[in-house]
Write a structure and sequence with these properties.
It contains 9 helices and 11 strands. Helix 6 links the parallel strand 8 and strand 9. Helix 3 crosses helix 4, helix 3 packs parallel to helix 5 and helix 7 crosses helix 9. The longest helix has 24 residues. With 292 residues, the protein is an alpha/beta fold. It has a domain of 192 residues: Rossmann fold. Bound molecules: adenosine-5'-triphosphate. GO terms for molecular function: ATP binding; ATP hydrolysis activity.
């Protein structure tokens, strides 16, 4: 399943039946005005309960397509996504998504607290419990004082904290994050990365985190999956064997961090041309096990 053949980073098996989230032979082809775009060719991997897995890949690799299928927002052309043993056919109740575009994901006419409370109302959480969850979530992201503010009164980084608070208040089993920090400044980004890891460890959620940023993937993840250029397959799947306690300066200057970053970087470079080079060869290797 993996293109990892160097001695250092550890390759892991994927697509196991015991995973909380299983992506099995996923395919997605878009049909638009007579044009056919094969976005995802064959994706098979599994995410274990409580795991924090990062996904990287070249632009246009199909990361968003994958996440939309996982979140039940898009119907696959083939294969399936299975969550807790059940096929995902619509947005699952126990999943929350944080998108990059925080500006568009929060309702400007609702206060911060009301934004966080809205999905809880839809989930029919009793009023008293809703209040507790909103307060706890705001406290967790360091925004206890901003409950009554409106999103447009907050900085970009604060708005993204609200989006994270809304996701965790929902108490999802799986948290999907689609390039959530791409639009914030470097300092805020580092803080939000640490917040993500802290919340993940404390709340024991399963997190699937998509990013363009290889360093971010290695810093955050327990595991990094590299997708090829579209039509997409999983090219590489590497365990990030850094200590669980991560710290921006110390972790990033760890020689092991540099090795892992170099490995993932080389895989992403390979991913960019994978299909061009692969066309001449029969379909095999990374991604095998799907239905092609
Ligand atoms: N609605 C659509 N109709 C037709 N083609 C689409 C549609 N959405 C995505 N695609 C195509 O599918 C491929 C994968 O797109 P996708 O947005 O999933 O990639 P991505 O890895 O998320 O990209 P980026 O990193 O640039 O955000 C691209 O070739 C894209 O043009």
């Amino acid at each position: 399943m993996t293109g990892t053949d160097i001695a250092s980073p550890t390759a892991v098996g994927t697509g196991s039946g015991s995973a909380l989230l299983d992506v099995r032979g996923l395919r997605k082809t878009y049909q638009t005005s007579g044009r056919t775009v094969e976005a995802v060719r064959d994706l098979t991997f599994g995410i274990a309960a409580g795991e924090l897995a990062c996904i990287v890949g070249p632009s246009g690799a199909g990361k968003t397509t994958l996440l939309k299928c996982v979140a039940g927002l898009l119907t696959p052309s083939g294969g399936e996504v299975v969550l807790e043993g059940r096929p995902v056919l619509r947005p699952p109740e126990n999943m929350a998504v944080v998108f990059q575009e925080y500006g568009r994901s929060l309702f400007p006419w609702l206060s911060v607290a009301q934004n966080i409370e809205l999905p809880l109302k839809q989930k029919k959480v009793p009023k008293r419990r809703r209040g507790e969850l909103v307060a706890e979530a705001l406290e967790s992201v360091g925004l206890a004082d901003a409950a009554g503010a409106y999103p447009w009164q907050l900085s970009g980084g604060m708005q993204q904290r609200v989006a994270i608070a809304r996701a965790i208040a929902y108490e999802p089993a799986v948290l999907i994050m689609d390039e959530p920090f791409a639009a914030v400044d470097a300092q805020t980004r580092a803080e939000l990365e640490d917040l993500t890891r802290e919340l993940w460890r404390r709340l024991r959620m399963t997190v699937l985190f998509v990013t363009h940023d290889i360093e971010e993937a290695v810093y955050l993840g327990q595991r990094v999956l590299v997708l090829s250029a579209a039509p997409t397959v999983v090219m590489d799947d590497t365990v990030i064997d850094l200590p669980a306690e991560r710290e921006q300066l110390a972790t990033r200057s760890d020689p092991r961090f540099a090795e892992l970053r170099a490995h993932v970087y080389s895989q992403v470079q390979r991913a960019k041309t994978y299909h061009r080079a692969d066309r001449a060869r029969p379909a095999a290797g990374p991604g095998e096990g799907g239905d092609g």
